[in-house]
Amino acid sequence: MPFPARRRSLLASLTTAASRWAGSAARKRRPRGAQIADVEALESRLALAHTVGLFVNDPAAQVGYTLFNDSFSPTTHLVDNNGQEVHTWTGSGGATSVYLQDDGSILRNTMLAPPQRSFGNNGATGKIELIDWNNQLTWSYTLANAQYQLHHDSILLPNGNVLAIAWERLSSAQAVAMGRDPALLNPAVNKELWPEAILEIKPDLVAGSGGQIVWEWHMKDHVIQSYDAGKPSYVKASEIVKNPQLINLNFIPRGLGADANLADWAHFNAIDFNPVTNQILVSSREFSEVWMIDHSTTTAQAASHSGGTFGKGGDLLWRYGNPQTWNAGGAGSQTLEFQHNIQWIDDGLPGAGNLLVFNNGWGRPDGSSWSQVMELKPLTYGLATVAWSYGGPTKGFFSPIISGAQRLANGDTLIDEGSKGRIFEVTSAGKIVWQYINPDVPGGPLTQGATPALVNISGVPGVQANLTFRALRYTANSPALAGRTLTPGKLVEKYPPFFSTVGSFDSATKAWTLNHHADGTSTAITRIAPLSGATAPFLRPLTGDFDGDGLSSPAVYDAAAGAFRIDNDADGVVDQVVTIPGARSTWLPLAGNWDGQGGDEVGLYEPTTHTFRFYALDGSEAAKAFITLALPASWRPVAGDWNGDGKDSVGLYDPVGHTFYLNNRIDGSITDMTTFKTPALPSSWVPLVGDWDGNKKDTVGLFDPVAKRFYLNNRIDGSTNNMLIFSLPMAATAIPVTGNWGSFPAAPRPAVAPLLKSAPMPALLAPIPPEIAAAAGTIPPTESSTDSAPPGSRPRSPR
Fold first, then answer.
1. What pTM did the predictor assign?
2. I need a labelling partner for 530 at 20 to 30 A (CA). Which of 46, 444, 626, 710 fits?
3. Which residue, 737, 678, 732, is CA-closest to 708?
4. 607 and 680 part of one domain
């Protein structure tokens, strides 16, 4: 990976002339002043916080592509570690589990709308879809009739068949005939009982739908009870503990988190298969147990208590999580609470052969609720060794429903905190090295800054509209992805087009490309031909709201002529030329609103004499120049409104010390400065400035010219967990710029006269006092320094 420790860190300097120019001049503008026609509309928007998308992306994270699906959305997303979408599939409805297959298709458990289901509970699906890489439905299977209802999970077996779980509908009379206590049947669901069935389906790929059930297991064939002595399933209460291979027909969970439905007696929510041992794992939420079953049996043997490789027919080979279900312990013996996603850890991965489970931990025996991922080594009935776990009462990690986990190739574990749509990767030591919040909700992805709404699912607390049943990471060399072109695209979340976004100036062709979305979208762009009369070889691009219309305009600084050439209406025609008398070719351009009135003006920084100069759009001095401390010429200037006071000020970046110095004043004072350090970054990376989240404060960003990737941070405190990261197709000669280009497609901009301000700037403070400079360990050069004589200035004309 090309990024240092926590790759979302920010900003380095430039070593080439072109990137230096862009680093100091690439600017966006926000609306300022009464002259802006749409200021009221822009002022009414919500200031964005970073609420969804990528939060953490450490270089230590397992590199790969994460597959997820909002439970209510028809779209399945595959994103890279930067949160950029590389592929999507579209199903016919929301989904529970989704798996990427070796041929690039997905097996998708799709939720039918309630009118298409005759019975069931939360997690009902009804349909299995196989969708190929080209987003074509190649096979589907629907089972949602009066007898059976698919739900939660299904998986593809090595033989090409599908193993699925389904509720089997029994009437009250059938349930009582088995030995169910009638008091444990719920009138709200007609006193029915819905025990589980496991079905192996051979797909009809020729027809493209349907299939044949070739093997089945039924929970009702393996029950035991001590309620009704007249039934074959009866044993004395003292005998239940001696039969852990059977399922207590009259066990029901009680307390916090237990489902009052009662018909959905076991509520399977996950299934897995071990091709080596020919065994099945299932997770029973209501029993708070995971069970192991023999798949080597025939269907007839699976209905009995003998046969198969292990000689037990369809009885349980192993169970773990809650000994109370078979009278083997009290509440204190319970180790799982409403768990999900039981699975074997695949061969070749750390912990191979062990089991991994997401323990939701809702309503633990001590009354607390907190989630935990556990790696288990099965022993005998009710027993297992916990080889590793993540979670605890102080972790702040809790999902009462759904959720899952996956062991990764590097030994880390990917965790889906499903009710919050939070997907994160932890090391074996518990360090979070990757974190992502699913932005997708019913109706489509959220706009950054919006918070996923709470949804009511049977009164379960804290469930959000971005709930995510399962998330899985696949490496680039996995069979499904090997050899495929995985081009990073847009981010899943949306960004308003009227905040700062990005673009580029091609130093070879002098043409401009303005991107209207800061999310990797490469279609919402405006192209501008080279500015008329601005084709000199040494042009330095910058952008600014020079006419006060609320939108950024392209401009270039002609270093040889000491002139700024501005295209206010972005039509490729220069509308205004600002010539700075005495300007040197080595000076670096800036754009900023130095007085907080109207629109932007221009500035120049002398890197050899460390002097900032500020100019009005008629070339006169807009504010008193000031000299910084004697600093290396490699330090790069930036300009922005760091504190949100409506006035731009300046800053410098030290590429050797990897430190940003962002001053909130342009009077030479160093008493109001924000300073933060970044890790060491390649010197070719280009620093940027913009208001990425629309909170009226500028922050910084970074462009990687090799990967053509933008890193735009929403904070200037040195933190790296609030960043937009995306790539764009760009020419090798492209220099990045930033700005507010407006909506897309861009409407023609009305001609606006160059903005002249109504009064001259008040005199500002003098350069840094020598005593302050001395305290800093160096003395600044004076205004009489060689090659630093101030350009001739004239009084500003009344505006």
1. 0.77
2. 710
3. 732
4. yes
